[in-house]
Every structure is written in structure tokens, then in C-alpha cells.
Amino acid sequence: MLGAATASYRGRICVRGISAIPAFIISRILQAIPVLLIVGFIAFALFAFVGDPVNIMLGTSYTEADRVRMTHELGLDQPFLVQYIKFIWAVLHGEFGVSYRLARPVSSLIAERLPATAELSLAAALFAMLVGIPAGVYTGIYRNAFTSRVFMVLSLVGVSLPTFLIGILLILVFSVLLGWLPSYGRGTTVAIGGWTTGLLTVSGLKALVLPAITLGLFQMTLIMRLVRAEMLEVLRSDYIKFARARGLTNRAIYFGHALKNTLVPVITVAGLQLGGIVAFSIVTETVFQWPGMGLLLVQSIQVGDIPVMSTYLLLVAVLFVIINLIVDMLYFAVDPRLRVGRAR
Amino acid sequence: MSALLDVQDLSVDFPTRRGRLHALDRVSLSIQPGEILGVVGESGAGKSLTGAAIIGLLEPPGVIVGGQVSLEGRRIDKLPPEQMRRIRGRQIGAVFQDPLTTLNPLYTVGRQLVETMQTHLGLSDRDAKARAVQWLVDVGIPGAAERVDAYPHEFSGGMRQRVVIALALCAEPKLVIADEPTTALDVSIQAQVIALLRRLAREHGTAVLLVTHDMGVIAETCDRVAVMYAGRVIEVGSVAAVVHRPSHPYTEGLMASIPALRARVDRLAQIDGAMPRLNAIPPGCAYNPRCPKVFERCRHDRPNLMPAKETQAACWLYAEGAVHG
């Protein structure tokens, strides 16, 4: 009987360690397919319902024959479903169409703009987590301390003020009044392969500071408040009392036992918020004239450049699906209870 | 005779908006090295609070307002937090009530054992891991060498309480405070866990302060018993004396209310009334409104522990020159 128990235990370790996670990932990817098809449909529908591409491309002087020819060339005289399938097919092959405004392939436009947005988002996300998590832990532990109250009031400001206002205020203080940091652009960039980076030059790094803080401030305060609330909850738990009764150091209790137990909800919210950082960097990029995808989108919306808009929509959808997948995998890494729960 | 733990007149208050509540009122206890002292009483009598106050883990806003706690002759109730932390686990271990919630769900039991031992004993990773496995063997976990890398949720309640006992003992403390260690367990498991605790305490020479409301556990396990009522210790003595020949009327009532298998009775014996709330403790003896042997002095003067038959009891029946009873 003992042998059987041990054997089943070994079996469970196997399931838990090796086969459970890939199976889970595959099921998640399969779930993502319908989501992406629906978003693809909306992106495709933009072409049909927002303006008439033939009109936009023909300009002002054309004959009816020109119009029919172009409609046929673009394949717009085919049935709706055929057009949709062709669209998905093209997207799967990396063909996102040609920008009406700039007459260049959207894929290369996005590729040019991607590094700027990626670096800005990454910097904002790092700022949000590296400041938000420790601040949340601190205000959770010393909830009545004066500094905690200051943090909480400041975080309220961060949550309530709109992004553009924070950006403008930061520009006013640090660019106009103090003159420490540039107010717009990426500074000097260096090209490595197809990737232009601002992280390797002083002016590039200086240019990154204000936009990153502006973009990450809301997420920072949100993460801080979430970590604080979770810490308050976890610190009341029996296993924290027992950890104290075992004489563990405060450091081990707060940053080992308590923080790790706050992580599951924090990962959920932080993951979605980081997706939001990338998707909605539009406002920050506009305020700081940051040459990223958000700025490209705003410029495209102004002239009704639908291929760019629909591609952006698809990209954001893919991004959210990927982030959700990563979040789900992080749950597995953090909480052992999920692993066995799945395996059974 | 030097006691391992000596608690003298320990008082704990909870300041509230409507005044201070005296949760513990001049509680005195002592434990000899290797001794098992049971603490019994109804819910809210202050049993668990006494344990928490001794290891310096009172929940705010509870504060120690009087008395002292000494471990091997050294006062520990006013130590700075860092020194008190070094005593917890290393000198005084603790076992909590509910094993389902006392283990951190995100760490393997091995890791929790290892970190406890490394915090107090400065062991290498390898030694600590080897000792962790040995502790799991000692507390009777089958397949300990593999189970050391398992998470708490992979154990049953009884097995988890065994792990908790290993955690309480692994830094070799001289005293373990076990706060209702079997209350949350299945009845069939309770006896095993108590037997384990008693065996390990004997083997390691560890003294145990066993908080419980289960008289059966007390009778089987303890050397001496303290009975608490409304935040006070009202009787202390050897197990045999307190269980079979109690002196205090409350203890008499408590023992009489334990149903016996052999006796056929229509109604179970009970003590009328309920223990007073902390904000309504009557003057004099806290038990006087319920006491069948109450007399005038009980309503005005508070009795302290005094020699009574074979035990020490806080009861005016045993005052010198008393003619009552």
C-alpha cells in the first residue's frame, strides 16, 4: 500500500513537471484562434464600412472606367466572404496592404516604428513594476507610517490625473523650467540590424525618461495599490503568523513568504496593464512626439488610412493574446496548487 | 528549583473605544524543563492569548500591561523585536491550530524546514536538507525522502500537522507552545498527533505548553494542568488531582460535565450560565455568579491562588480559617 502511494506520487510529479504545461499551452493557443479570427474580421470590416478605399485612392479626377478597373484590381467586386478569406490569407503571409497616405507597405511602416514603441513601453513597464511593487510592499507593511500616507496620496494623484496632463506638467517642470530633459523626440538613435535603439546614447536615454514616466505612472500607482491591498490581506494569514513564530527574519517574511503570495493577482492585473501600455501609448507618443506606432496610428486615423489602422488593431490583439498566455504560464510558475489541479 | 519558563502576574489589555478590556489578569504559570503543562478553559478564557503573549506575538491592539515572562531566569517580555525573533523558533517553538492554513502554500515543506533551520542553526544547504528529511521521518511521514519536495496541499490534514510539529521542533527549542494542535483534525487522527507530540517532546527533552479545551487530551498527555477562567488562572495542579479531585468549584463543574461512556444519565451535567464577557467581569471572584458554593466574600474580594487540598486554587473556600464548604 505504501509502495502504491509512493508510485502514484511519483506519477503526479511527472505529470506536474513535464506533460501538464505544454498541454495547457496548446489548449490556450487553440482558444486564441477564434479570438484572433474575430478581431481579424473587425479589422477587415474597417475596409468595408469606414470610407471607400477606391474613392480615397482615385483622388478627385477619374472616369467610371477607372473606378471599375480599380475596384476589380483591389478585388472589391468579389463576394464578402471571399474577400475576408483572402484578407486572412494575406495577413498570415505577412502582407498587411499598402498605406493610402504614404503609399508604402504597412508592414515596413510598422517595422520602422516598432522599436520606438517597444523601448518606450518596456521602460514604462519596468518603471511601473520596479517602483510600484516595492512601494506597495512598503505601504502594506508600514500602513500607518507618514511616508506610506504620502505615497498613498501621491498615488491617488497618479490614478486620477489624465495622462496627457501629467505629460504636459512634466514637460513644463523638467524641460521648460529646469531644462534638464528634452520635451520631444527620441534623441540620437543607433541602428542595430533593422532595430533603431535610443538606449545606447545619452540623449536617447534622456529623451526616454519623461515619456516612460508619463506612460507608466498610472500602471505604477495601480500596481502599488494592488500590492498594498494584497499584502494587508496576506499579512493577516496564519502562515505569516506561523512564519513569525518560527523566528524567520522580517526580510524573509515580507519579501519571501508574503510577497510571493500576493503575486497571482498582481501578475493578472500587471499583465493586462502592460498590454495596455503598448496598445495605448498613443496619447503619450502624441504629447512627446515620440516616433512610435501610436503616433503613426493617430496620423493614420486623421486621414482615414485604413490598412494601418486595421494592422494596428490586429497587432494589439496578438499582443494581448501573447501577454495572456505568458500570464497563465506565470501562474503555473508561482502557484504549485494549479499544477496538480490541472494534472488530476 | 529553576523553572524553564516562569510567567508572573502577566496582564494583557485590549484598549478599545469603550475603555480597556482586561483579557489576561495577573496570570502566573511555570514550566519545568521537559514538563508538559496543559492549559484548559472555555473559549475566550485567555488560553491562546497567554501563548501569544509569551512568544511576543500579541495581535495589536493587545498589549502587555503588567507582569513578566522569564525564560531560564532571563526576562523576555521586554526584549527588542530582533532579539525576540531569535528566541522564537530557536528557544520557543509553536504549533498552531489549523494545519491547513499554517503552512505557506507556495513553498515545499522541505524548503520551509530548511529555511527555519538555516535561520537559527546556520547549517549548510546540504546538512539542512538532510536534517529536513530526517525530521519528516521522525514525525512519521511515509516516503520522506521524496515528500520533502512536495507542497503542503499534497498532504492530508493530519500529515500537515505532523509537518507543522517538525517545523516547531526543528531548531531544537526548549519549549513548544502548542495552541489547540488537534482541534482542527479528524477525531481518528487526534490521538496520533498527540502521541507524536508527546513522544518527540520526551525524546528531545522539550517542555510543552499544551493549550486545549479537550480534557481527554490533557488527561492523557500532561504532567500538570492550569485551568483558566475569564482571563485568570483559577487552579493549577497535577493532572491526577485536577481531573479526579479538583478543588475549585469551576473545575469541579468542568469535570462533572464530561460525559462518561459507562454512566447512563438522562441529562448531561452542565454549569449554568456562561463565562462573563471581558467588559462585564464581576468584582471579586469572576466565577461567583455561577458558583454553587458562593458566599459573601466571593462577591467583593478577588482570590489569588492558594493551597487547596492537593492543588492550588483561587477560591476563598480554602482561605485560612475559612469554615465554609
Name the beta content range of chain A.
under 5%
Q: Percent of residues of chain B in helical segments?
A: 25-40%
The radius of gyration computed from the alpha-carbon positions of chain B, rounded to a whole number of angstroms, is 21 Å
Largest beta sheet of chain B, briefly?
8 strands, mixed
Round the Cα radius of gyration of chain A to an integer and report it.
25 Å
Task: Write down the oligomeric state.
Answer: heterodimer
The CATH superfamily of the largest domain in chain B is identified as: P-loop containing nucleotide triphosphate hydrolases
| N- and C-termini, Cα separation of chain B | 34 Å
Q: Within the CATH hierarchy, at the fold level, what is the topology of the largest domain in chain A?
A: MetI-like fold
Enumerate the spans of chain B where pLDDT stays under 50 for 5 or more consecutive residues.
none
How many individual helices of chain B? Answer: 11
Q: Of all protein chain pairs, which has the greatest interface, and how many residues does each chain bring to it?
A: A-B, 29 and 36 residues
* Basic shape of chain A: globular
Question: Structural class from helices and strands of chain B?
Answer: alpha/beta
In round numbers, the mean pLDDT of chain A is: 80
Strands ordered across the widest β-sheet of chain B: 6-7-8-3-9-10-12-11
User: What is the mean pLDDT of chain B?
Assistant: 89
Count of extended strands of chain B: 12
Explained architecture:
The complex is a heterodimer of chains A (344) and B (325). Chain A has 344 residues and is mostly helical. Chain A has helices at residues 2-49, 53-58, 64-73, 80-92, 106-141, 146-160, 163-177, 202-235, 238-245, 250-279, 282-287, 293-303, 306-334, 336-343; strands spanning 190-192, 195-197. Chain A has two domains: 26-92; 109-302, MetI-like (MetI-like fold, Orthogonal Bundle), CATH 1.10.3720.10. Chain A has 14 helices and two strands; from the N terminus they run αααααααββααααααα. In chain A, strand 1 and strand 2 (195-197) form a beta hairpin. The longest helix of chain A has 48 residues, at 2-49. Chain A is globular and about 85 Å long. In chain A, 32% of the residues are buried. Chain B is an alpha/beta fold and 325 residues long. Chain B has two domains: 5-222, Rossmann fold (3-Layer(aba) Sandwich); 249-318, no CATH class. In chain B, 31% of the residues lie in helices and 23% in strands. Chain B has helices spanning 47-54, 81-87, 99-102, 109-121, 125-138, 144-147, 157-169, 187-204, 215-221, 239-244, 249-256; strands at residues 5-16, 19-31, 36-40, 63-71, 74-75, 92-95, 175-179, 207-211, 224-229, 232-238, 306-308, 311-313. The longest helix of chain B has 18 residues, at 187-204. The two termini of chain B are 34 Å apart. The mean pLDDT of chain B is 89. At the A-B interface, helix 1, helix 9, helix 10 and helix 14 of A face helix 2, helix 4 and helix 7 of B.
